[in-house]
Amino acid sequence: MSLSLFLEQVLNGLQFGVMLFVMAAGLTLVFGVMGLINLAHGSLYMVGAFACAAVAAATGSFWLGLAASLAAAALAGVIVEIVVIRRLYTRDHLDQVLATFALILMFSEGTRWLFGSFPLYLNTPEILSGPITFPGGFQYPAYRLAIIVIGFAVAGGLFWLIGSTRLGIRIRAGESDREMINALGIDIGKLYTAVFALGAALAGFAGALVGAIQSVQVGMGEPVLILAFVVIVIGGIGSISGALIGSILVGLTDTLGRTLLPLVFSTFMDNSAATSTGSALASMLIYILMAAILVFRPTGLFGARS
Amino acid sequence: MRREFWINTVLIGGLLGVVVLAWLLDEPFIITLSTKVVIFALAGVGLNLALGHGGLVSFGHAAFFGLGGYAMGILASHAQSFEPLQLGPLVIEGSKSMPVIWLAALAVSALAALLIGSLSLRTSGVYFIMITLAFAQMIYYFAISWPAYGGEDGLLIYVRNGFPGLNTLDPIQFFLLCAAVLGVCLFLVDRLVKSRFGMALEAARQNPQRVTSLGIDPYKVRLVAFVLSAAITGLAGAIYADLNRFVSPAMLSWQVSGEIMVFVILGGVARFAGPLAGAALFIVLEHFLGGLTDFWQFWLGLLLLLVILFARGGIIGFLAGERRHG
């Protein structure tokens, strides 16, 4: 395997990883602060992608679409939080799983109703549509590179938000003692809505960014949601840094596994058997990684030890 | 409890009544729908043991449902092509006989549950939910990318498998066979729940520390319950694949895990006939709402949401009142 192919796969893995992070960050925040497991997070990802595709198709501007994805997902998040989610904070995880499963059904069918069953197409913006040439002649699509940069920028922004702003202080306080923060005169209900909307906006943003390289269709959110679960199980639920490490680990393992494993197997098997065994094993690799981490750290890499 | 007994009797009697009526009026489609209800209920009975009685919220029971389906598909496809299955030194003949297939499905899903459970039960709460989901996805993606048994396209079986002394191609006979299996499993699970083991399981859900102090290891009790629960769901998977004469990775998908959970919750968690009530309501909704609108799942979602927010005991809980203890 050539060095440039390897480098390309590493970058693809990073791109996949940072997008998983943007998804997983919202999930882990919502769980950390409100103790809520939200399966409908994937639906918010889908809402963002559809909003971006619809607005971009109507106005011709990807950037307006991207802004619309943030607004639509945050709005959907606020509505869902006020109507449904806030009744679930005191319920057990089973009720939360089922209620948010019901929300997935409603979001998916509602979107199918509005937009039909066919996938929408979203083009990458003009300015980022070509490849970028690195010194040494290695080329990589500019849009994917931009996604990596944006992903790390979002990570930086989140660390700043949680670590050094007033809202971040409140979020951290809400995580550790919700009665106390309430007693100190902070409206916990508003704080929860804000955190949920933030997570939703991030999910919608990720959906719009990924929607431009994949197709925008109903059901696009759930595979990503499940991977985001793997990420936060690996990283430790509630931990943003855990989510960052976990998603990059998962992104790289998955992408590199898919290219490298068939090559590894072809050194001692015939070609077709190597391809099928290698790709079958590669598709299981991140779950094996998760199982391995769980054996040693049942609460994830950065999780609080129980 | 007395009221619940009558509700269960009406429920089971109602289902049998519908089937007898359909048989008299020669409506094989209604019989097939009822067979589907019975099989889904069986899958739910399996999950209810872990989720309802053990408090183990498994979001990955599709793995066992699908593995049961594949046990049937693989054995029957080898029988159909007359090529034995080679597993290293082990040579397994294919089979078209339901009892053999069922044993295989029970064994395969129990073994998978032993592996998945022994890892997942190290955790609890949300971690457990996500990990069972993730393991089911792992098997799903494996089934998609492994080409030997059809990969994404699945496996088609030409003729439904046989059961000694019955003509399984006759809808009413196949229905009665499935109903008998469900009856046996309901009886066994009911006995199990009321046994010493069932009490230990219930206690491990309510207060693991106290159970430990009594000298019972909650991990072991839960693992056994998880394995038994998976085996029953696996059996349901094998029978479901036989109903359709088809198995594909779709049986392993996360939506199926969600649906099996919906049967249990709609019907009533940890209720004797909860899964049957839930599965029956699900099929009725699918059939009638599906006829009215293409987007019936939207209304299913709304109903499910309302049940969870406002009627927590499901159908049986709504009709029979709260469980005595829980």
Describe what you observe in this structure.
The complex is a heterodimer of chains A (306) and B (326). With 306 residues, chain A is an all-alpha fold. In chain A, 75% of the residues lie in helices and 2% in strands. Chain A has a single domain (3-296), classed as ABC transporter involved in vitamin B12 uptake, BtuC, CATH 1.10.3470. Chain A has a two-stranded antiparallel sheet with strand order 1-2. Chain B has 326 residues and is mainly α. In chain B, 72% of the residues lie in helices and 3% in strands. Chain B has a two-stranded antiparallel ribbon with strand order 1-2. The chains are: A mainly alpha (306), B mainly alpha (326). Chains A and B meet through helix 4, helix 9 and helix 11 of A and helix 5, helix 10 and helix 12 of B.
Main β-sheet of chain B, in a few words? 2 strands, antiparallel
Count of distinct structural domains of chain B: 1
Structural class of chain A: mainly alpha
Q: What is the CATH level 1 assignment of chain B?
A: Mainly Alpha
Briefly note the CATH topology name of chain A.
ABC transporter involved in vitamin B12 uptake, BtuC
What general outline of chain A do the C-alpha atoms trace? globular
**CATH classification, class level of chain A:** Mainly Alpha
Order of helices and strands of chain A: HHHHEEHHHHHHH
The residue-averaged pLDDT of chain A reads 88
Catalogue the unreliable spans of chain A. Answer: none
Count of the domains of chain A: 1
Assembly level = heterodimer
